[in-house]
Amino acid sequence: MTQVDSAASIRIRRQKYVWKYAWRRQRLYSARLAARRRGPVRPDSGGPMAMSSEDVIRLYENVSTLTRQMLTAARSHDWDALQRLEQACADQVEVLRHGQPAPALPAELRARKVRLLQSILADDREIRNITEPSLHQLSRLLQGVAQRSSQRDGHNGHGGHGGHKG
Any idea what the Cα angle at residue 88 is, between residues 7 and 80, rounded to 5°? Predict the structure, then answer.
């Protein structure tokens, strides 16, 4: 594989990931998401599972670890790993969203949660800085293809009969 082929392959995988990443964020109707919306269920009641303060912090730590791994994957252009990690991260976030709210966190744990959130947001921002330029490039590419197709269709519709009616 030549260097040009390798660069093209990386570009295609990145565009494929970016497209899936953007699509997944907009897709709210899937059965898998609907199942996650029900959240963790207590076996005895069928309702949302109560989470302790430690459970909440542990979930934030998991999300922080996953976003750090996602950033590493994005930096190394490992789009398949990035996609898998993004799904694992989304699963953890769903547990946080749909679990029974924990009681108010003590000051020490609240400060830890804030630090974790800041780290998660910083990693997410850097991941977007890596992936969004490709999304914009893909969008421009698709617009160009659509314009050429539209122009070609316009020429075919008017130029096929020599331009005059008999």
Answer: 15
CA 105 to chain centre: 29
Q: How confident is the model at residue 21 (pLDDT cuts 50, 70, 90)?
A: low
User: Over 72-112, what HEC string results?
Assistant: HHHHCCCHHHHHHHHHHHHHHHHHHHHCECCCCCCHHHHHH
Looking at the DSSP bridge assignments, the partners of residue 100 are 50
Q: Which CATH architecture has domain 50-129?
A: Up-down Bundle (1.20)
| Residues β-bridged to residue 48 | 41
Rounded Cα distance, 70 and 119, in Å: 13
CA dihedral 119, 78, 27, 92 (to 10 degrees): -40
- The C-alpha R_g of the chain, in whole angstroms, comes to 23
Strand partners, 41: 48
Cα(165)–Cα(148) distance, rounded to whole angstroms?
Answer: 27
Write down the pTM of the prediction.
0.59
Q: What is the pLDDT of residues 79-123, one digit of tens each?
A: 899 999 999 999 999 998 888 777 788 999 999 999 999 999 999
Residue 72 vs residues 30, 83, 87, 92, 127: alpha-carbon distances, Å: 28, 12, 15, 19, 9
